[in-house]
């Protein structure tokens, strides 16, 4: 892969995607249960990449004893996945992230070219979680073993041929990035990688004044789940018969599912807006590639203006929808 790059092939060089690149980069001890007296607060870490097709969370303990709630998010790198499915899974993700998001890890592989799906991920993240999500973003490159075999550093790999998408992501996230070797058997190297990632997560926390990220959708979901829990507790305290309680609990569950579905549908509409806007930008970019140098410069300027207008329109439409009441 890196040899191809040295021979002048554009970044990143072609290579088949490896399944082990999709693994969560931080190799920490997983635990199923924790003591209620655990002194360390839980930090919610969202993992974005070709990791999973279903949202789920795994608790992990770092070498220092900190607890990470690692939440995999589905389908954000796959344009074939429906907006409806993504909307439903993101609602699940925000439900799992009790207390807000402490960091978002964008996982990219140095083994493969940046795809159109991956180029969409920044706008997708901002649509799903809000524009300020970049303040919590860390870019994790996997496949470090390949670069090491070719005697390259991450900086060598990025070089002068970095895609505009990646330049923009790194600028917005303050150049927070790390390279992981998923295949190493060296325990010392594994530990060093984990420590470097944890330092970046700690940096994100400090730069955001120890305030986890939340947005309007997060608060809507939290309020709905708290309402549902409170009503369940009230029912249990009223002395209903077992049969009556079961029936009333079922009604509450149906109402909760209906309200969460309405929120997922709101996310679905926002996703469709983002996808349509991004597709238009891709079409315009393809046209620009066929133009002369001067025409390309003019087109690039138009694309920047177009993207700005689209983002403003998207945000206006999404804000309008989010202000609608959910029954």
UniProtKB/TrEMBL annotation:
Assigned keywords, A-Z: Coiled coil, GTP-binding, Nucleotide-binding
SUPFAM superfamilies attached to this UniProt entry: P-loop containing nucleoside triphosphate hydrolases
Compositionally biased residues, Basic and acidic residues: 12-34
Stated family: Belongs to the TRAFAC class TrmE-Era-EngA-EngB-Septin-like GTPase superfamily. AIG1/Toc34/Toc159-like paraseptin GTPase family. IAN subfamily.
Pfam families tied to this protein: AIG1
Organism: Arabidopsis thaliana
InterPro entries hit by this protein: G_AIG1 (IPR006703), GIMA/IAN/Toc (IPR045058), P-loop_NTPase (IPR027417)
Domain AIG1-type G: 1-222
Residues in coiled coil: 218-265
Disordered, as annotated region: 1-35
An example molecular function term from Gene Ontology annotations: GTP binding
PANTHER family the UniProt entry points to: AIG1-LIKE PROTEIN_ 48352-49494-RELATED (PTHR10903:SF146), GTPASE, IMAP FAMILY MEMBER-RELATED (PTHR10903)
Protein's recorded name: AIG1-type G domain-containing protein
């Amino acid at each position: 892969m890196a040899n191809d790059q040295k021979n002048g092939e554009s970044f990143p060089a072609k290579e088949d995607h490896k399944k082990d690149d999709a693994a969560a980069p931080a190799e920490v001890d997983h635990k199923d249960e924790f003591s209620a007296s655990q002194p360390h607060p839980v930090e919610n870490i969202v993992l974005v990449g070709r990791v999973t097709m279903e949202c789920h969370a795994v608790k992990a303990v770092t070498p220092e004893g900190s607890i990470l709630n690692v939440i995999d998010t589905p389908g954000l790198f796959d344009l074939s996945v429906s907006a409806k499915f993504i909307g439903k899974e993101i609602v699940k993700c925000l439900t799992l992230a009790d207390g807000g998001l402490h960091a978002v890890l964008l996982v990219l592989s140095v083994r493969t070219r940046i795809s159109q799906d991956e180029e969409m991920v920044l706008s997708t993240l901002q649509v799903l979680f809000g524009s300020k999500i970049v303040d919590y973003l860390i870019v994790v490159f996997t496949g470090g073993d390949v670069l090491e075999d070719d005697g390259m550093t991450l900086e060598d790999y990025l070089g002068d041929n970095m895609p505009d998408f990646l330049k923009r992501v790194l600028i917005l996230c303050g150049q927070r990035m790390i390279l992981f070797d998923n295949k190493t058997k060296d325990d010392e190297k594994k530990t060093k990688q984990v420590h470097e990632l944890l330092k970046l997560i700690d940096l994100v926390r400090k730069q955001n004044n120890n305030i986890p990220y939340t947005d309007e959708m997060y608060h809507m979901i939290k309020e709905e789940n708290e309402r549902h829990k409170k009503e369940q507790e009230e029912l249990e305290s009223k002395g209903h018969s077992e049969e009556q309680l079961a029936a009333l609990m079922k009604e509450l569950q149906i109402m909760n599912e209906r309200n969460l579905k309405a929120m997922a549908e709101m996310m679905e509409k926002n996703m469709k807006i983002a996808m349509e806007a991004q597709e238009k930008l891709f079409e315009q970019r393809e046209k620009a590639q066929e133009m002369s140098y001067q025409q390309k410069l003019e087109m690039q300027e138009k694309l920047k203006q177009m993207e700005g207008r689209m983002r403003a329109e998207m945000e206006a439409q999404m804000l309008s929808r989010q202000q609608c009441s959910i029954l």
